[in-house]
Amino acid sequence: MSNRIRRHHQTFAALGLTASLTTTPEIDTTEVAGGCVLVPSGSPLTTLTYYGARQPGATYGAIQDGSGNAVTSSVSAGNGYPIPDACFGYGSLKIVANAAGTVDLSFKG
C-alpha cells in the first residue's frame, strides 16, 4: 500500500467571468481544498470578488472576512493568485470580476 496522499485535481480553462453575480458561472468546490486563479496576458481584470453557496445551485452570498469586508483579490494580467482560504468552506463558488474576461482556474483537493 502506498503512503502517498492522493489528491483530486480539477482545472477550468478559459472560464468566462462577468461583472454580475447572475451571469458568472458557478464552480463546484465540494471536492477541493485549495486553488489558484491564472489571469491571462492582456486581460482587463483588476479585481475579483468571491461569493459562496452551501452547494451548487443554492443561493450565493458575498464571502466576508472576520471584519465583515468582502473577500476580494487585486489581480493583473499575466499573473497567478491563490484563491483565498475563506472560500473553501463553501460547496460552490462564484467569482465576480470588475469586467468581463477569462481566467484559468486550478484546484487541488
Describe the structure.
By secondary structure, this protein is an all-beta fold. It has a single domain, classed as Jelly Rolls (Sandwich). Helices cover 0% and strands 44% of the residues. It has no helices and nine strands. The protein has strands at residues 9-17, 26-28, 34-39, 47-53, 61-62, 72-74, 79-82, 92-97, 101-108. The strands form two sheets. Strands 2, 4, 5, 6 and 8 form a five-stranded antiparallel β-sheet that branches. Strands 1-9-3-7 form a four-stranded antiparallel β-sheet, with no helix packed on it. Strand 4 (47-53) and strand 5 form a beta hairpin. The radius of gyration is 14 Å and the shape is globular. It starts with 8 loop residues before the first strand and ends with a strand.
CATH-derived architecture:
Sandwich
Give the CA-CA distance, first to last residue: 21 Å
In the CATH scheme, what's the topology name?
A: Jelly Rolls
Report the helical percentage: under 10%
CATH class: Mainly Beta
Shape: globular
How would you characterize the largest beta sheet?
Answer: 5 strands, antiparallel
- Find the structural class using helix and strand composition: mainly beta
